[in-house]
Amino acid sequence: MNWIKKIFRQQPADDRDPNQSNAYEMIGGDKTIRAIARQFYARMQQGEDTQNLLAMHPGSIEHSEQKLYEFLSGWLGGPQLFQQKYGHPALRARHMPFAINEQMRDQWLLCMQHALEQEVKNEEHRKVIYQAIATLADHMRNQ
User: Fold this and answer.
1) Long-range contact set of residues 88-97: C-beta below 8 Å, sequence gap at least 24
2) CB-based burial of residue 81 (10 Å sphere; 0-12 exposed, 13-18 middle, 19+ buried)?
3) What span, in angstroms and rounded, lies between the C-alpha atoms of 142 and 125?
4) pLDDT the model gives residue 16
5) What pTM value is reported for the model?
6) How do residues 70-82 score in pLDDT, each as one tens digit?
7) What is the DSSP code string of the chain?
8) CA-CA 20 to 30 A from 9: which of 1, 40, 90, 118?
9) Is the Cα dihedral 88, 97, 100, 119 positive or negative?
10) CA-angle at 135, arms to 38 and 15, nearest 5°
């Protein structure tokens, strides 16, 4: 009988998966996620040490920033914005066309660390999110 309850259980109005992390709310929700994406790309554009990574980004940075925001929203337990627009993230497959080695991973993580330091006030939250995203970033390496 429990399987029936699962099938008919109402989904939250914002399309959050209640089984996922609540990090989204703990760090400040939509406003903070948007700010993280903004800080991430600001750091990438301003850093001399991230120009190789910046050069890999096709099209406008605004589009990439929006996609990062949408991905992080769902990944951190908020609305599944990326999935609603593009389907399952399938990150490794989406990143295969790009040469991602340790240097590119490290540049990406440098930008993410900066963004988290700027926007996530709680040190423990920053640490946990960074550790999880570092594992994900390492998984994107294809060289």
Assistant:
1) 91/136, 91/139, 91/140, 92/139, 92/140, 92/142, 95/140, 95/142, 96/142
2) buried
3) 29
4) 52
5) 0.83
6) 999 999 999 999 9
7) -HHHHHHHPPPPTT---TTS--HHHHTTHHHHHHHHHHHHHHHHHH-GGGHHHHHT--S-HHHHHHHHHHHHHHHTTS--HHHHHHSS--HHHHHTTS---HHHHHHHHHHHHHHHHHH---HHHHHHHHHHHHHHHHHT---
8) 90
9) negative
10) 60
Taking Cα atoms as reference points, which of 46, 52, 60, 35 lies closest to residue 107?
A: 52
> Tokens 């660390």, residue?
113
| Direct distance between the N- and C-terminal alpha carbons of the chain, in angstroms, rounded to an integer | 49
| Whole-number pLDDT of residue 93 | 87
What is the amino acid identity at position 64? S
Query: Measured between alpha carbons, how far is residue 21 from residues 50, 51, 64, 143 in Å?
Result: 30, 33, 24, 31
CA distance 20 to 26: 13
